[in-house]
Structure formats: C-alpha cells, structure tokens
Amino acid sequence: MFAGLTASQYQVVLSALRSEIVKPGQHIVSQGYGNTNLYILRKGRAIERATDSHRMKELRSSIVQIGRLFNEMAFVTGGRSDTAVEADTECTVWFISRGDFQAILKDNPDLAANISYAPETVATMHRTSKYEWLEPGERVEIERKRHWWFFGKRMWFPIVLAGGFALLLAGFANLAPPGLLWLWPVFCVPYVAWHFIDWQNDYFVVTDRHVVHRERVIFVKDQKNQMPLEKVDSIKVKQTGPIEFLFNLGTVTLQGPNQSEVIFDLMHEPQALKNAISAEQERVRAANHVTELSVIRGDVRVAMEIAPRPAPIVVQPTLPKSALQRTKEYLGSNASTFRSTFAPKSRVELNQGKQIIFRRHWLDLLDTVWLPGAIFAAISVLAGFIIAWRFDQILSVSWNVICLPVALLWFLAFAWLFYHYEDWRNDQYILDEDKLVDLDRKPFGGETQRNEVPYDRITTVNADIKGITNTMFNVGDVVIAKTGGDKLVFERVHDPKSVQQDIFKRIEASAEKKRAREKEQRRKELTDWIGIYDEQARLHGNRSVP
Q1: Bridge partners, residue 179, by sequence
Q2: In sequence order, what are the residues at sequence separation of 6 or more whose Cβ sits closer than 8 angstroms to the Cβ of residue 155?
Q3: How does DSSP assign 212-276, residue by residue?
Q4: Is the dihedral of CA 517, 521, 526, 527 positive or negative?
Q5: DSSP at 148
Q6: Structural contact between residues 34 and 42, judged by C-beta atoms closer than 8 angstroms
Q7: CA 271/CA 412 separation, integer angstroms
Q8: Rounded CA separation 304/197 (Å)
C-alpha cells in the first residue's frame, strides 16, 4: 500500500503511527465492527480469521506475518472489518487511525497519488463512493435503471411527426417551402434529448443498508425515496400488459411497516431483481449474526479464562482552559447567539453534534412577509417624504393630524412584519440523539406544538424538491413516515437530501445502540451460563450420573 511513497512521504506516515501491546487471546480486530484503524504487526504471533457471512462458518484462517498490514479494507472505505485478527501470543502492533490518515492526505495532496491499493480494495472503494449520499463504508450491491422501453414509448411524437413530414414532402414536393425539411429536427431534437436525459437521470439502488429510488426531472423535481434494508418486510412483483410480458418487465415494490414502500418500476427481469434483493437481505442478516458470534466467542474465552479481560478504558483528564481560551469561547458564544437570534442558519449543530436544528429556508420567509414588508416599506417611504417635505412644521398641531396616524400605521406594519419573522424563526426541526422533534411555536408566548418521534418508529424518509425556484435554490420537503401511518414533514428546508441523510444516520445509530444493548444482554446471559458450566467442570470433572 505504501511501497510507492518517497522517503519524506514515508516519514510523514511513520510519524502518525502509534504502538499498542495486545495480550494473548485478545482481538485486535473483530469482524463486522467499525474499527477503521490500519495495523502493522511488529512482534508476536497473530491469527486472522474470516467467516463466510452466507454460510455462517469459518472460511479461512491464516497466520499474520511480521510486518504485514491488516484491516486495510475498513481503513480505506470507512466500513466494517471483514476479518477478525486475534493475538496468539503477546503482540506489539503499530496502528494509524483513519481520521489521522485523512488529515495527512489533506495536508499532503501529492501523497495520495503514490498509494497503491489491491484490485479488490479499488472495486470496494468504487462501490462505497459512487453516490454522494452513501454513508461511510456503505456499499452499493445492486444498481438498476428503467428499461429502455421507458424512453422508447415516448418517441411516438417524433416518429409520427417524421412520418407526417415525409408524406408532406412526397405528396407536395413542388409546393413545400425549401426549409421545411429542417423543421423536424428543430421540433424533435430537444424533445428527444429531454426525454433521454429524464430516462438516464433516474436510478434504483440497493446497498448493504438501504433501498433507494431517485427520481429527477430537470428544473421540475428531484425526489429521493429511501428505506432501511432491514425494514423491508415484503417484496412484490407485478407484471401487467402484453408489452411487459413480451420484454419481461415489471414493477418491484419493496414494502415496509404500515404500507410504506419504495417502488422500482419498469425493471427488466423483475423476478431476478426480487431474488437478488432477498439474497442481499439474507446476507446482511447473516453478516450481523456472524458479528455477534465473533463477539460471543471472545466473551466465552474470557469467561473460561482462556483470554484476559479487556483493559478498562482510561479517560484522560481534560486540562484546565486558559483565560484567553475562556475569553475567546465567551465572545464566540455571544456572537453565535446574536447571529442565531437575528439571522439564524438553516442548519445548526449543538453539543458537539449531538443535536442538529433545521429551519425552513428564507424563501419560505419571503412567501409570508412580502405583503407586510411591502406595506411597511411604503409607509416608511411616505413617512420619509413627509419628514423631508415639512420638517420645520412637523411638531405643529396641523401636522400632528397627519403624522400620528402615519406613525401608528408604520408601527402596526412593523409589528405585523416582525410577527411573521418571529413565527418563521421560532419553528424548528430538531434531531436529538434518541428522537426527532417538530417544534412549532407562535411568537410572544403563543401556542406551542411539539411533535416527537423516536427513531425506531420511523419507516421511510423521502426528500422531495418540486418547481423551478425550489430546484434552483435546492429547497424542498422531507417527508418522514412513521408507524401508525402518520407522517411528519420538514417543510421547505435547504438541501433536503442532506437532511434526509442526517436523519438516516440518526436512525442507524439509534438502531445500532438498540441492537448492541440486546446483544450485550444475550451475551451476558450466555457467558454467565458457560462460566458456571466451566467452573463446575473444573470442580467436579467429568462424572457420570450413577
């Protein structure tokens, strides 16, 4: 991987390496877990094991040679480890974290050009970076577009038009104007190009985590329907009409809880696609099962005293901040508070990213304040004109009859404008660690509505952009379907596809925490039983019942 680096580049990488001593029986890397460090064995003996996630049995086992790199795939892609490496004797390993290495590449752009990857790593890197919405380590497994008939059936217009021109020229060749032949491409080329781009813009993707349908029409709409793969309850295939049977086309509907669904329409060989998606679901379930077995194996070894217990995590005490740091943080906090009060951002992260707050785009604000804003501006211009025209008489009794009503109207218009601004600013869409919140607050202590949805109740999340203006400014709705059939809508947020991905990241993190708690409980019960059995076996030996 680093063989092509120059001496100076190699020293930069070496300076980021850290050393760790691993006791016999401890896992350096656990298969299926998100350890993205790159390791080099410097001393000792380690065993690498890989388990076939399809057959759920050990596929290969090999000795890790001194100086060999391992866990390269997870390090490069940011995904989960595809093998397990266990220390057979006391080992010394060098490792570099993926985050540190990414920082090195950012500071040394020429270094990336000299790094070489194995062919299978390159293929996996392509599958994990093909789309901007992929999460770290998420791999594209199935990718489809609609059959060419989707484009072909819309070509009736240029074909009919071409036939009409041909008949016209054949029957009235002498009477037809000389430039008539050029009218066909003028009308038909833009039409054909538009529909060809519309056909190629849309795609259907199945990853190892999600199913996705992206529907795009230039300047009209951009819609992305997405559902976690694990929430797909059923897959239905429907074929109707002679054309679909002739070309073996059909619609594949992936249905989740409460009739939520993602539709793959006009797919070629729909039954084969259904089988491929079902196989991917089984592979993901098997991979999760293999991951749990790998951890259980380690827990059992600890319970049977074959391997040492993992060392407790030592939290390093934080150093006290200097007076200058505290002053900078105080001023920065006040500046941020002032800005968020009068000109709030559309997306704000709080508590080191634990909470994300979204607001509706300023286009939505313009839709509500244009009328009070126009009236306020008109009254302001009128007041300025009055002041400039008769400033010397403005305090006279005769002018008070005019000025006071104008001042009152100006104040009422300003209050109307400020009310709508506060109503826009107060509404928030919040992503907490364990739930999603839609907060709707009326200004000046008015009615407050708070709608909360735990992440495990969310079934699908769709991003939808419609209209030329919204497409230009990347503004749209994020529709969240939840169990029970209800929906929650983040209305007119900026970059709805990014908001959609933020929600899915929270859903995945919440599901991972829930799975970890359940697995931890099962492992604890299992290892307790095995520990009791091992204790009794050592105390009493293998005795037969009389």
Answers
A1: none
A2: 192, 195
A3: EEEEEETTTEEEEEEEEGGG--EEEEE--HHHHHHHTEEEEEEE-GGG-EEEEEEEESHHHHHHH
A4: positive
A5: T
A6: no
A7: 65
A8: 63
pLDDT tens for residues 64-76? Answer: 888 888 888 888 8
Residue 436: CB atoms within 10 Å: 24
Stretch (H or E) spanning 538? helix 496-540
What DSSP string describes 312-343?
Answer: PPPPPPPPPPPHHHHHHHHHHHHHHHHHHHHS
- List Cα–Cα distances, 264 to 144, 169, 208, in angstroms: 9, 44, 17
pLDDT in tens, 157-203: 888 877 776 776 666 656 556 555 666 677 788 888 888 999 999 99
Over its C-alpha atoms, the chain yields an Rg (Å, rounded) of: 32
DSSP 63: E
* Nearest Cα residue to 78 out of 125, 112, 17, 143: 125
The residue length of the chain stands at 546
Contact in structure between 235 and 272 (CB atoms under 8 Å): no
d(CA 19, CA 28): 12
Instruction: Measure the CA–CA gap between 50 and 64, rounded to whole angstroms.
Output: 13
Q: How far apart are CA 203 and CA 211, in angstroms?
A: 11
The pLDDT tens digits of the residues spanning 310-357 come to: 555 444 555 566 666 666 665 565 555 555 556 678 888 887 778 899
Phi and psi angles of residue 149, each rounded to the nearest 5 degrees, phi first: -65, -25
Q: What is the pLDDT of residues 340-351, one digit of tens each?
A: 556 678 888 887
**Looking at beta carbons, which pairs linking 260-266 to residues 24 or more positions away fall under 8 Å?**
260/227, 260/459, 260/460, 260/481, 261/227, 261/460, 262/211, 262/212, 262/213, 262/225, 262/226, 262/227, 262/460, 263/213, 263/225, 264/144, 264/204, 264/213, 265/146, 266/146, 266/147, 266/149, 266/150
Measured CA distances, 206 to 260, 274, 279, 348, 530 (Å): 17, 11, 11, 31, 40
Q: How far is CA 137 from the centre of its chain?
A: 12
| DSSP strand pairing (428-431 vs 355-358) | antiparallel
Half-sphere exposure of 170 (CA within 13 A, CB side): 6
Q: What percentage of the chain reaches a pLDDT higher than 70? A: 79
Instruction: Quote the CA–CA distance of 46 and 28 in Å, as a whole number.
Output: 9
Phi, psi dihedrals of residue 241, rounded to the nearest 5°:
90, 155
Tokens of 102: 């990414």
Mean pLDDT over 288-310 rounds to 66
> What local confidence, expressed as pLDDT, does residue 333 receive?
55
Question: pTM of the full predicted structure?
Answer: 0.71
CA 207, CA 216: separation in Å to the nearest integer?
A: 20
| 135 Cβ neighbours under 8 A, 6+ residues apart | 209, 501, 504, 505, 508
**What are the Cα distances from residue 397, in Å, to 265, 394, 400, 402, 403?**
76, 8, 5, 9, 10
What b/e sequence results for 176-186 when a residue is b if at least 16 CB atoms lie within 10 Å of its CB, and e otherwise? eeeeeeeeeee
Rounded distance between C-alpha atoms, residue 177 and residue 180, angstroms? 6
